[in-house]
Amino acid sequence: MRLWLALVVGLPLPAHAHLVTTGVGPFYDGAAHFFLSFEELLPVLALALLAGLRGARYGRWLIALLPLAWLAGATLAFAFRPASELTLVTIALLIVPGVLAALDRALPLWLVAALAAVYGTLAGFTNGAAMSVAGLGARGVLGAASMALVVVVLAAALVLSLRGAGLRVAARVAGSWLAALGLLSVGWALKG
């Protein structure tokens, strides 16, 4: 009995290190991939915090630019079939909006829009590369970009609705934690 149990427990099973397959189709696989890939999810949250702290106009630009840039970056990845991903760069981009949200200073709209466009393009590029390797294609990228849009809309609207000074401080603290996670992630990626 013990030998049988040891054999069953010790049997190797297929492991999926990064990309998740839900079994319900490429769109939902892309959506699940977004929520399980912190290098995609956390910078989107940091950008939403930053835009929400800056006001509704900033949030509208983020909502418009991020998904469009994501799709443009994925289109580039599909066209050029990159040999390597830019995951380290997208992780490093978590630091900038996190620090800017923590500082809560007046920023020009073009700066937040540029951050959204640069991050969206790079994240879309890495996402498109991962989706093409996994065989999920454009529908997988569309699922991830749609979830990025949902997260941006909900998180920016939540931060925008914060009226009390203490709640704004909590949003700034969240930004500082996201920046710290970015620093830790960059160190972890460089170490490995």
Provide an overview of this structure.
- The protein is an all-alpha fold.
- The protein has one domain.
- Helices cover 80% and strands 0% of the residues.
- It contains 9 helices and no strands.
- It has helices spanning 2-10, 26-36, 38-54, 56-80, 87-92, 95-103, 109-134, 137-160, 165-191.
- The N and C termini lie far apart (40 Å).
- The mean pLDDT is 84.
Give the total of domains: 1
Q: Biggest sheet: strands, sense, closure?
A: none
- Radius of gyration over alpha carbons? 19 Å
What is the N-to-C order of secondary-structure elements (H for helix, E for strand)? HHHHHHHHH
Low-pLDDT sequence parts:
none
Coarse shape: globular
Supply the number of helical segments.
9
Compile the SSE list and pairings.
Elements: H1 2-10, H2 26-36, H3 38-54, H4 56-80, H5 87-92, H6 95-103, H7 109-134, H8 137-160, H9 165-191
Short description:
With 192 residues, the protein is mainly α. It is built from 9 helices and no strands. The longest helix is centred in the C-terminal third of the chain and has 27 residues, at 165-191.
What are the key terms here?
192 residues, mainly alpha, 9 helices, 0% strand, globular
